[in-house]
Structures are given as C-alpha cells and as structure tokens.
Amino acid sequence: MCDVWYTGTKRLTASQRARLTASGLSVHHVPLIETRLTHNQMPISQFDWLVVTSQTAVPALRDVPRDVKVAAVGEKTKQALETVGFTVALMPETFTGEALFRDLATVVKADEVVLFARGDLANTAHMAKLENVHDWVVYETIGRELTETEVEALEGIEALLVLSPSAVHALTPYLDHFHGTWYAIGEVTERAVREVSTLPVRVPECYTMDALIQCIGEDFS
After folding, report:
1. What is the pLDDT of residue 105?
2. Beta-strand runs (E) in the chain
3. Which family does it belong to (predicted)?
4. Chain centroid, CA 181 distance in Å
C-alpha cells in the first residue's frame, strides 16, 4: 500500500475512500487548515447578484434573501447553496474564481449590484471585472503546524492531495521532508504548489474532488 495524505478539512466520503483503497492507497486524513465564520454583517442590504466561490461560505448566508441571482464557482458549491434554498443562475465551465467573474461580467447589467461572499484569503483581483461589487468576508482560514510525528511520517508519503493554496502554504515549512507527487484540485492550487516546489504536480481536467480521486487512482492502479 502507498501512503497518501488527504489534507482537506472535510472527511472523505466512504465511497471516495473506498476508491482510493481499491487503487492500493493507504489514505491518511491530515487536515492542514481550519475555517471559522467571521459573523461579519452584510455590507449592503439590497443587491441583485450573490457570488460564492466556496461551499465553506454557505453557512454564513442564512439571512441572505433567496430570490437573488446566485453565481457559484462549481458543482459542490452549487449543491451546498441549493440545499439551503438558493437557485444558482450561473456556474462557469472551469471551476475557478477567475472564470466565474469573467462569465459574470458578460451577464451582469450596468445597474446591478453584486455581493461577493468570500473567505479572507480569496483572490479579490477578479472583482475589478465588475463595476458595482461589494466585498463580504464571511469566514477566515487558519493554518496549523505539523506535529513531530507527522513531519517524520511525511518522509514516506508518496502523494499529497491539496485542495487550496492555504493547504500548500501550511505545508511549505516542511517541504524538505516530502519527495512524492502533488495532486492539486485546480489551477489556482497548482500555481501555489509550483511557487514552492519542483516536484511533480498532477491536476484533474475537471476541478472536483471526485476527479482528483480518479486522477490519483489511475496513477497508482
């Protein structure tokens, strides 16, 4: 069995873990970050569009009217929004914030107001594509240090599954101990990896957890 670290905050589903195990992988859940709601008030009360680039933001949207138009970054975020009563009007083909704001810029009217509900580390440069967009930080991301035992274990890990630049940054102090392959969920996380590491990086064509699992499963089968 090859040892793999899955570094996401949420646990893998039973089917996801089973697929990895079936590929000869011993999966260890080592979350590197945690998120906390900020409980910041909405900066505006009237708006036409709500933009959400992570399912982590969804619990903070309890008081947001359900009749606004919603733009979601990808399938998991879309599902989380729909579960609490929102209707998603726009989702890009490529599941990135850049693609989402690019698509939004083609449909948002000049007089429409946009509210961007995000984490504290989200890229805000894409907001410049819209004329009337308001920023709402609804959660913060906190990294953690590895234990001494985890640092030692990292020496024998053959693959790291990373789902965000934040996870990559949390691992950066320990990169001398890792000699395997990175599996990044999308191009934004891939860029973060390449900034700090020269080791191989694999990225699935579709930026979803299931696609990432398929990618690593095919490599190790």
Report:
1. 96
2. 2-6, 25-29, 33-37, 49-52, 69-72, 88-90, 114-119, 133-143, 159-162, 181-184, 201-202
3. Belongs to the uroporphyrinogen-III synthase family.
4. 19
Q: How is the chain split among helix, strand and coil, in percent rounded to 5?
A: 40, 25, 40
Nearest Cα neighbor of 117 from 84, 161, 144 is 84
How far does Cα 216 stand from its chain's mean position? 18
Taking the mean position of all CA atoms in its chain, how far away is CA 153? 25
Split the chain (221 residues) into runs of 10 and give each run's mean pLDDT.
Answer: 92 92 94 94 96 96 97 95 97 93 95 96 91 96 93 97 94 97 94 97 92 93 81
Query: How confident is the model at residue 102, as a pLDDT?
Result: 95
Structure tokens at 109: 């009217």
80 bridge partner residues: none
Domains belonging to the chain, first-starting first, are 2-32+144-220 (3.40.50.10090), 36-141 (3.40.50.10090)
pTM equals 0.77
Amino acid at residue number 158 = E
Please name the residues in contact with 132: beta carbons below 8 A apart, sequence gap of 6 or more. 111, 112, 113, 114
Handedness of CA 12, 19, 21, 93 (dihedral sign): negative
Q: Per DSSP, which regions of 32-132 are E strands? A: 33-37, 49-52, 69-72, 88-90, 114-119
Q: Which residue from 216, 181, 185, 217 is spatially nearest to 201, judged by alpha carbons? A: 181
